[in-house]
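Input/output pair, single chain:
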Amino acid sequence: MSVDVQPFVFLRVVTGSRAFGLSTPESDEDRRGIYSPPATWDWSLTKPPEQVESIIDGIVTIDWEIEKYLTQALKGNPTILETLWSPVVLLPTIWARS
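Output:
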């Protein structure tokens, strides 16, 4: 069973070759996001999913729960840290660079 975290995603960026202008026509698009689950999910007997993955129309999306994201960032995980340097910000649009 897949959990829909889309309403709780507060940051989403494009990573990989498409973010840095290195893609080819065959390259997929990688998107990474961070979500903050509602309090009721934390109050339940099961924790929110640490990571939710989907592949739709060649777009690979991975959304991390905020606790996992911060824990991995503090450990220096390069996949996590890449999200901080992506030049392509999709969410929130108010932060998008021109």
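Residues 6-95 form a domain with the Beta Polymerase; domain 2 fold (CATH 3.30.460). Residues 66-74 form the longest helix (9 residues).
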